[in-house]
Amino acid sequence: xxxxxxxxxxxxxxxxxxxxxxxxxxxxxxxxxxxxxxxxxxxxxxxxxxxxxxxxxxxxxxxxxxxxxxxxxxxxxxxxxxxxxxxxxxxxxxxxxxxxxxxxxxxxxxxxxxxxxxxxxxxxxxxxxxxxxxxxxxxxxxxxxxxxxxxxxxxxxxxxxxxxxxxxxxxxxxxxxxxxxxxxxxxxxxxxxxxxxxxxxxxxxxxxxxxxxxxxxxxxxxxxxxxxxxxxxxxxxxxxxxxxxxxxxxxxxxxxxxxxxxxxxxxxxxxxxxxxxxxxxxxxxxxxxxxxxxxxxx
Length: 298
Prior knowledge:
alpha/beta, Rossmann fold, 6-stranded mixed beta sheet, 9 strands, 15% strand, VWFA domain-containing protein
């Protein structure tokens, strides 16, 4: 009798067991989604306004590099607003801002950048405001790039100094998911921040890569053995996530892309940044999902 009862109960118990497991997984997934939605986003965008965006020096018949930047910023803005619209009003306490380093000489550009510092909480969140963010970011950033290109006086981009003196204070908030999106071709150079410490530098250029014999098949061995890289910044940025967009290596060296990414990877890792991605310049339509997946953690 017992054997007969077990014979019929066993399949039923198995069904109940796996059903409970599925429910646990579903509940865990739903909890994770709710947690992600309720997070406060603190998104910073650092724009490299060097001559990489010059349509004279670096023309691109497929799509100009400044237009690609605008497309990337559009995707970031859309990811930000999608996040806001998924939250309850009382949960909203989010920020998005845009930086340059150094600040452009054109006061109009600096004035526009102030309009792109968005702080939204339960006191000012409204449907109209949320619906205006994307169009506002698109129109204002277009003005910045058009002004920089018209001015045609590219002073470079001091990314190294930005990390050294500003990131900790300006891009990291307590109890927030801090994301820094950097729009750059991967090279770093600024005349007022040219430093060298053995084989570490505050800059990287095609000339430096050639000079250091990182343009051949032995580049990786040389890079490791001789400790090439950016000068270390003694700052713990473990609360920061970084997405680098627009890497555009010189076509004269087939190893250039790998060298640039090795410099950045080593530097970011030394600053204890755990979550980062480094992406080449591509059409905005191809980058849209990558950007939104990074920001939404999909």
